[in-house]
């Protein structure tokens, strides 16, 4: 008798997927940004990275339970995060909740004013991260009992 059945394998794969891609997401989008902001305090810097990792882990794990909507949202979040990171690093803009909305409400005349080849590199990195994380998302969805348990936490 084995202790790891198909559901346990799916759960372990979902945890591994969430751990790996949240680590990549945190390293790619937050490490340099937090170093730029919290250069004066290493303690705050490390706590910020840990909190960002926990947020990303929760996001990847939760969205991995949705089939198509999760893939689309992870792809959109990856692209948006890469564009926000570009503006944060290039122009020294501090991220807040309104910055993500401003990215998608920008018209074409404003885009041409800040367009650069470096923006295309950041955008390409976001697309690659979004494609890889959507491609390796667990195929099998948990049963309703598992989702109810996860939501009750």
Description:
- The protein contains eight helices and no strands.
- The model is unreliable at 1-6 (pLDDT under 50).
- The chain is globular.
- Helices cover 78% and strands 0% of the residues.
- It starts with 5 loop residues before the first helix and ends with a helix.
- It has 153 residues and is an all-alpha fold.
- Helix 1 (6-29) packs across helix 3.
Write the layout of secondary structure elements.
Elements: H1 6-29, H2 31-37, H3 42-63, H4 68-91, H5 97-104, H6 108-114, H7 117-135, H8 144-151
What distinguishing features does this structure have?
153 residues; disordered N terminus; mainly alpha; globular; 0% strand
Termini separation: 31 Å
Mean pLDDT: 80
Approximately how much beta-strand content do the residues carry? under 5%
Radius of gyration: 18 Å
Low-confidence stretches: 1-6
Structural class of the secondary elements? mainly alpha
Largest sheet: none
Outline, from the CA principal axes? globular
């Amino acid at each position: 008798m084995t202790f790891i059945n198909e559901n346990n394998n799916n759960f372990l794969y979902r945890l591994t997927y969430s751990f790996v891609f949240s680590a990549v997401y945190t390293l790619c989008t937050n490490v340099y940004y937090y170093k730029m902001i919290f250069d004066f305090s290493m303690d705050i810097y490390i706590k910020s990275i840990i909190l960002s990792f926990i947020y990303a882990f929760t996001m990847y794990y939760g969205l991995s339970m949705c089939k198509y909507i999760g893939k689309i949202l992870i792809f959109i979040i990856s692209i948006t995060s890469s564009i926000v990171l570009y503006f944060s690093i290039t122009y020294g803009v501090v991220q807040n909740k309104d910055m993500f909305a401003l990215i998608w409400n920008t018209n074409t005349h404003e885009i041409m004013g800040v367009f650069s080849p470096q923006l295309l590199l950041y955008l390409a990195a976001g697309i690659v991260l979004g494609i890889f994380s959507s491609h390796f998302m667990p195929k099998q969805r948990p049963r309703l009992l598992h989702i109810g348990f996860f939501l009750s936490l």
